[in-house]
Design brief:
This protein is an alpha/beta fold. The protein is built from ten helices and twelve strands.
């Protein structure tokens, strides 16, 4: 069986990792370099680095801190924030990223995904979607969850995957930072719509939330979280041990 991936997320603002609730009230956590080094050594399968204010501020992603972070990571690194052009893809990949995550840039220019996939390959292009329920409908938000695009989320995801997105990160704004579990209904809808790897993001508060996620929505390939890992509430080694005990395949350190 294919192992389920556990992915810590570094939300970076002004060169520091921050975390909030429902994309708001951000507080500083630590240096992305120190956290990247820690996660790379303690069993994380991949790492995500988001410059969370690049799109909203209309600027390019910080490259200096990214280069230093990438130099300390020995697991796949996905990077996003302010990705609007093929030049942005090129710049981030040259900084050490393995995959590039695009959200607001694809909304502004829907042809970006197809162009990037053609140039760099589907496996390099990650669609990140910030979704919130609006009048009962899954709706896409842009600029770090600040702007309601009015776009229906499932049809948008299907379109982007058809264009060449090789992976989808589903960020539930409704459950982000709340720590009451992943948005299972939303994730089920996405998994039914596409056949590429789907990463669940937003809502993890305990080890049991991951167990519930993988057992309830087996189509999900990975669980992504931030604060519970950053603040030591859940240790990745303990999480993976519990996953194995529950029949959920996980990659263990040292091949355990």
């Amino acid at each position: 069986m294919i192992t389920k991936r556990i992915i810590p997320c570094l939300d970076v603002r002004d060169g520091r990792v921050v975390k909030g609730v429902n994309f708001e009230n951000l507080r500083e956590v630590d240096s992305p370099v120190d956290l990247a080094r820690y996660y790379s050594s303690c069993g994380a399968d991949e790492l995500v680095f988001y410059d969370i204010t690049a799109s909203a501020e209309g600027r390019k992603l910080f490259t200096d801190i990214l280069k230093e972070t990438a130099a300390n990571v020995f697991i796949p690194l996905t990077v996003g924030g302010g990705i609007r052009t093929l030049d942005d893809f090129d710049r981030v990949l040259k900084c050490g990223a393995d995959k590039v995550s695009v959200n607001s840039g694809a909304i502004k220019d829907p042809s970006l995904i197809a162009k990037a996939a053609q140039l760099y390959g589907d496996q390099c292009v990650v669609l990140s979607v910030d979704i919130k329920r609006v009048d009962g409908k899954f709706t896409v938000f842009a600029k770090g969850g600040r702007e309601n695009t009015g776009i229906e989320a499932i049809s948008w995801i299907k379109r982007c995957v058809k264009d060449g997105a090789g992976e989808v990160v589903v960020n539930s704004i409704d459950t982000d930072g709340v720590k009451k579990g992943f948005d299972l209904e939303m994730l089920e809808a996405v998994c039914e719509a596409v056949r590429v790897p789907v990463i669940a993001s937003g809502g993890a508060g305990s080890i049991q939330d991951f167990i519930t996620l993988f057992n309830t929505v087996p189509g999900v390939d990975a669980g992504l979280a931030a604060s519970i890992f950053h603040f030591g509430e859940v240790k990745i080694a303990d999480l993976k041990k519990t996953m194995q005990e529950n029949g959920i395949p996980a990659r263990m350190l040292g091949g355990q």
